[in-house]
Amino acid sequence: MLSCANLACMRGDRLLFKGLNFELNDGELMHVKGVNGSGKTSLLRIVSGLMLAEDGEIRWNSENIRKLREEFQRDLLYIGHLPGIKGDLTALENLRVNMALSGHEITEDEAWNALGEIGLKGREDLPARVLSQGQQRRVALARMLVSKAKFWVLDEPFTALDVKAVDMLQHVLTNHVKNNGMIMLTTHQDFTVLDINVKMLDMGNHEVDL
Amino acid sequence: MINVLRWAIWRDLTLAARRKAEILTTLLFFVIVVSLFPLGVGPEIGTLAEIAPGVMWVAALLASMLSLNRLFSDDYHDGTLEQLIISSQPLALLVFSKILSHWFLTGLPLVLISPVLGMQLGLDSDSIIILMLTLLVGTPVLSLIGAVGAGLTLGVRGGGVLLSLLILPLYIPVLIFGSGAVEAAQTGLGVEAHFSLLGAFLVGSLILAPIGAAAALRISLD
After folding, report:
1. Which fold would CATH assign to domain A1-75+150-210?
2. What ipTM does this complex have?
3. Residues A118, A115: Cα–Cα separation, whole Å
4. Rounded to the nearest 5°, which phi and psi values hold at A25?
5. Is A70's CB within 8 Å of B89's CB?
6. Interface of B with A in 10-29 (CB under 8 A)
C-alpha cells in the first residue's frame, strides 16, 4: 500500500502543490488529472523517488521510501516522458538491457514474446532509431509485459500510440490491477478500464494562489 | 550483481562499437597534441626527451577531459539515467560500470599508443615502459575523478567549461607523480615512491568516486 502525507513540491520559486494526501491500495488505479503545469509529472517523479518533495512523506507498506530505497524500487516500474531507448541498439537489446539494469533480468524468449505481443513482430531486430516514435514508445511500454513490479507509475502512457495500441494498453492495465497490482498514471486522453477501482486525483484542486 | 555489471558494460561497449567515431576522437586528439610539440619546440632530440613526460601527461589529461562530457549526457537526454537511478541495483555499482567502460574506451587506447609517441619524442626504452605503467595506473584515476565532475555539471548550460575548471585542478597530483616517475626513470632515480602514490590515488578514487558520482547524479536529476 502506498500512502502520501502532506506532500508539497516547489519548482524554482513556484509552489506547485502542498498539503497533498492520498492513499493507493492493492488492486487500485489512480488517475492523476490536471491542467498543464499543475505538477502531475512532478508528483509522479516524487512518488517514484526521482525527486525530493519539499515537504511530506511517502510510505510504501508503512515504511518511508527513502529508507526502503532499493526494496521499494524492486516493486516499482516507472515509465516517463523519455523512453530510455538507445537508437543504436535493436528493440530486443533495448528491452533486455533496460530490464537487466533495472534489476529484473529476462531471457531472450521472454523479450521476443513481449515485443511480438506489443505489436512489433518482425521489427525486433531493427535498430531503434529506424522505428517511428510510436514504435519506440511501444518498446518502452513492452517493459510492462515482462515486469514483475507491483506498482506502476506511468506518465502519459498513451502518447503517440495508435488506436489499436491504446486498446491493448488498456487491456494490460486492467489485467495488472485485477491481479492486485497498483497503477498511478497521468493522461489527457479518455480511457476505459472495466470493473476496477479508479481513483481520481485532481491536481487542479490543489493549485495554490500566488 | 555481477550480471548487472556485465549488462551495463556490454551496453556501453556495444554502443561505442556501433559509433566508432567517438572512440577515435579522443585517441586522435592525443596523437595530434603530442605531435604538435616537435613542430613548436624544434626537433632537438635532447630537448624533446626532456619535456616528453610532461607533454605526454598533459595531453593525456586533456584527452580524457574531452570525452567526459559525454559520459552521462546521452543517458541523461534519452531517459536511461532516470531508469538507472530508480533501479533496484545500487546506483554506485551502475556508475562504476560506466566509468570502467569509459576508461576502456578512452584511457586504455592512450596507454597502448603511448610507446609510439614516446619514441617520436626520443624517450629511451626504459622510460617508455615506465611511461606506459604510469598511464596504466593514472588514466583510471582521471576517469574516476572526472565522473564526479561530469555528474555535478550534468544538464548545466556551458557545463563543458565548468567541468574543466572543476576537474583539472584535481588532476594535478596525478600529473605531478605520473610525469615525475618518468623523469625519475630518465635520470636513473627510483620510481617506487611515485608509483606508491599513484596507486594510492587509484585505490582512493576507486572507493570514493563511484559513490560521489552517484550522489552527484541524484542531485542533477532532482
Report:
1. Rossmann fold (3.40.50)
2. 0.88
3. 5
4. -100, 170
5. yes
6. 10-11, 14-15, 18-19
